[in-house]
Amino acid sequence: MHRLFISDLHLSDDTPEIEAALVSLLQREAGFDSLVILGDFFEAWVGDDDNAPLADRIKTLLQALTDGGVDLMIARGNRDFMLGEQFARDVGGTLLQDETVLEVAGQPTLLLHGDTLCTDDGDYQQFRTLVHSAQWQAEMMSKSLQERRELARQLRSMSIDAASNKPEDIMDVNPQAVATAMQACGAARMIHGHTHRPARHKIDTGERVVLGDWTAQQGWLLRERETTVTLESFAISP
Predict the structure, then answer these.
(1) What CATH code is assigned to 2-235?
(2) What is the pTM for the complete model shown?
């Protein structure tokens, strides 16, 4: 098994260098068996009916990947929480639940985006419950694409303002939330993104691996080969 894990690319029209880096990665890593995307693949996602050029380009890219035999798994993040089953079908992939247990390098491993672990940030958790509700999402989908795009811009601006006024520690994971999640599913390893703090942590319940976010200068991935996993960074050329 040769599997790659990525997260937090935050693809948008404002980040063409990251889109180009994704294309480059998939080309130079030809031969891997599986790609797992653990959320915030897009900076925003307003629904699976999105017909923006960016959405079409990424769908075409991922469809070519799965047509070539690569197993694709996609989790929602806090930016692209509106990703749905239709998107997964369009690209030939599988949409993951908020928490998924998968055998990785011989160990039961809990996969998730990571925002649910930041339990010290009560305001965010309340917001997350709201926007993940069926009623809120139905109301969102009743709006036009243009209206949804404008709302997404407003929510992003509000999020930036809110984050700038919060202590750094409450936006990181809560250790007890990590332990509880791992123990509940019997996982020996956890892999997540969201916090933009790439590292491998040895903890009482096993290991917690944090994927890094992609910037104009640097990308991150976790590579699984047989019984080993390696957290890797790579330069993104201008």
Answers:
(1) 3.60.21.10
(2) 0.95
